[in-house]
Design a protein that fits this description.
six-stranded mixed sheet; three-stranded antiparallel sheet; about 40% helix; elongated; disordered N terminus
Length: about 375
């Protein structure tokens, strides 16, 4: 089954979460979040989340305009053709097999520069989608104009595959390309499935849950990466933490379970350490002989993260946070101290406004100046 992707209004929901907050999570997870933060600081005005596609499209247009002035990135693409004169290397087998010399031709293999690169096709596709999803008329028109200009320059239609994008190599002079691609990917993500026929594959319920879990984790990491002040050293994503075993053999090293933290914040000035782990599930579940209880495995996990580091730096001033999403009425935060460490079980309400979500995340950890 296939579906078309149409512009989503902020009143709609995706898997129970308002689309406006799906957009918010996509923004936090994107490499573009830092650019949007800078733009908000310059204007000193918080724009409504309904305008988020317009903001992203504006940033994309700015980067594309800069790239058009400098010249779009080209690649050298391998080609082969039967020519009247030698170009590149001669394909002797084809030349002899088809007796091309008798007709005054010669088979050649050569490289030719082209603008039809995967990153340029991605940007052009995002401009075309922006002309649909953006609400402001002038921005929509600019998206159409830039997409038409790129087509006339030789950038063809069609999204590049994930494999093609993964092979893209960015050099030290490709900062504008990186930003434009980040804006393009975010704008392309701001569509939701409908029941209309189209060309995009519809995710199964199981895949939707997996995608949302990864999005939530990446969004929280991206948020703290951008908003943490310079006083904090932040390591977002799969931070390896080792067991402080004094006497061990090689067999022990191989068999000990690995600890990977979602987010680790350390401050030398404050002498603090904060471990944040995201869980895309409910905070409270039914326990043994109890209707409501914290999940045992989660409690053990957070306990291991903090107490396994006894004797290490920040040991006496460490804080662990398990962060859960909530839709509708969020659970009250739970905080307690145990063996010199602070344990926090908290939920962020994805039914709230962008300001409420932001304030909740900032309130969990004091990371601003």
């Amino acid at each position: 089954m296939s579906v078309s992707l149409s512009a989503a209004t902020t009143s709609k929901r995706y898997c129970g979460i308002p689309i406006r907050n799906i957009w918010l999570l996509l923004l936090y997870a994107s490499d573009l979040f830092g650019e949007v933060e800078k733009k908000s600081e310059k204007t000193e005005k918080e724009r409504p989340l309904d305008e988020l596609p317009d903001i992203v499209a504006e940033i994309l247009l700015y980067f594309v305009r800069e790239k058009l002035l400098q010249g779009l990135t080209r690649i050298s693409q391998p080609q082969q053709a039967d020519l009247a004169r030698v170009r590149g290397k001669i394909n002797l087998l084809r030349t002899e097999r088809f007796m091309l010399l008798e007709r005054g031709r010669i088979a050649c293999r050569f490289h030719e520069p082209t603008l039809n690169t995967p990153r340029n096709r991605l940007i052009k596709a995002a401009l075309e989608k922006g002309a649909i999803i953006v609400s402001h008329h002038d921005i929509r028109q600019k998206c159409r104009d830039f997409a038409t200009l790129m087509f006339r320059m030789g950038v063809t239609d069609g999204l590049p595959t994930r494999e093609q994008l993964s092979r893209e190599v960015y050099g030290v002079n490709d900062l504008q390309d990186r930003r434009a691609v980040a804006a393009a990917q975010l704008l392309l993500d701001m569509f939701i499935p409908t029941t209309l026929m189209g060309t995009e594959a519809l995710l199964s319920p199981k895949e939707k849950a997996k995608w949302l879990r990864r999005l939530f984790e990446k969004a929280i990491r991206g948020f703290y990466r951008v908003t943490a002040s310079e006083k904090w050293d932040i390591k977002p994503g799969n931070v390896r933490q080792y067991w402080l075993v004094t006497e061990r053999s090689e067999e022990v090293n191989a068999l000990l379970p690995q600890m990977e933290l979602d987010i680790l914040l350390t401050s030398t000035e404050r002498g603090e350490k904060i471990v944040i782990d995201t869980k895309y599930t409910s905070m409270i579940s039914s326990g043994f002989r109890r209707e409501k209880a914290l999940k045992t495995s989660h409690m053990y996990q957070l306990y291991a993260y903090l107490n396994s580091q006894t004797g290490a730096a920040w040991d006496t001033n460490a804080k662990g946070i398990l962060l859960y999403p909530a839709v509708g009425e969020a659970q009250a935060d739970l905080q307690f101290s145990m063996q010199g460490h602070t344990f926090v079980f908290a939920t962020v309400n994805l039914d709230g406004t962008a300001t409420e979500v932001r304030n909740k995340l900032l309130g969990l950890v004091d990371i601003e100046e």
